[in-house]
Amino acid sequence: MLETLSSGLSPLAAADVGRSFEPGTPVLLTIAALAIVLLLVLIIKVRLHAFFALIITSLATGLAAGIHYGEVFDVVVDGFSSTIGGVALLIGFGAVLGRLVEVSGGAQVLADRMLATFGEKRAPLALAVASLFYAFPIFLDAGFIVMLPIIYTVARRLQGGFMIYVLPSVGAFLMMHALTPPHPGPTAAATVMGADIGTVLVVAMLVGLPTWYLAGYRLGLLLAKNHPNMPVPDIFGEPEITEHVRAPKFGTVIFCLLLPLALIFYNTVFSTLESTGAVAADNVGLTISKLIGPTPIALLIATLTAMYLLYLRPRRGVQDIRSGLSDLVDKAFAPVCSIILITGAGGAFGGVLTATGIGDSIASALDSFGMPVILAGFLVAVAVRVAQGSATVAATTAGSIMAPSVAELGLEGFGLAAIVVAIVAGSITCSHFNDSGFWMVGRFCGFDTVTTLKTWSVIGTAIGVLAFLLAWVVYALVA
Fold it and tell me: Please, which residues bridge with residue 19 across strands?
């Protein structure tokens, strides 16, 4: 996402933080557990807003873990700002694009076509499959926000509770983001371990598709049964279709939604060609890809295009059309400001946990335990993920820690790719309060904190564990 699951500090940044004292690993583990309990008490019992609860807990955790009182606020701000830097752009552009699709009637057009093609009974599956394709080249946060208006529209039309439509799509985005290149976690882990990206992608899809179906789609439907009457959030507003303004054509809506994917994929292709030496650094295509292909820029271009195609062009001759567009953008920003702040606060909490050094301590201990290398890689990734929240950092760190041990085995091809997939499976496991994606998805779905733990966290953990087990099967067959 950016990285939806970004954190403030690198796991190695703990050495750069001033200390009042140096607690041992058992003490750090206790502090981390108590911090999570404090968060739950503040949010659930005291009913304090999640933003304030996260900031307070971050400060208290940093002080309790020995970060110098003169530096703890800087650590919190660093985690907050580095997360906001990427997330705010993606959520902002994505929210405006989503509102344009919803208000213009584009979401209704897509929903009608989808239901006519797949039928109402298969609507959750159709949304999940669409999410799989949409999640391939685009980060979870951006893709999920753009898909939401379609999910909202289908859920309103068919009734039956919002969760039955959104959770299968959440599972699709989680699986694709966690396991498959060109997403940053698996790409970085494959690179540091010397694995071929194409082979990793093949193994990731072999493992990921059954994992998505069982731990994403089927489990999502099962969890949704516990919330049969969950209302559809009203974030993007209602369509504004009148006798003077018609809904956009199906092809126009599809073009606006696929445009950012095309730009991002174009950038990915040229970045891959550059890394392999197939194109020179001054290649014109590469230069253009770096200009228009980064995810925030791709979403900006798509949003501006949608402003014209979905709003301005159909309303030619309507009075105060530009003022109406400005109001639309303001209304899109208003409900997501809280989400952006909470997401940044989650990054601050992750930054504090990272600065304590707990992730390094646990990872080093696991690496020296003498367990099978594929199991050790998975558990190291889980430990780093729990400690600091970022799936990309967890995958990259675990890959770096395990690379020497894996190199001694002389693995290559599918065996090495299976270990990479096992590691990135660990990086998506056990999402909780220090994961910015936890707060972003939960708030856009209208979930409270406990409900987010029971849905997002459960699905992510199930995907991680099942993907790891299947990767181990592949490893056993080929290694």
Answer: 67
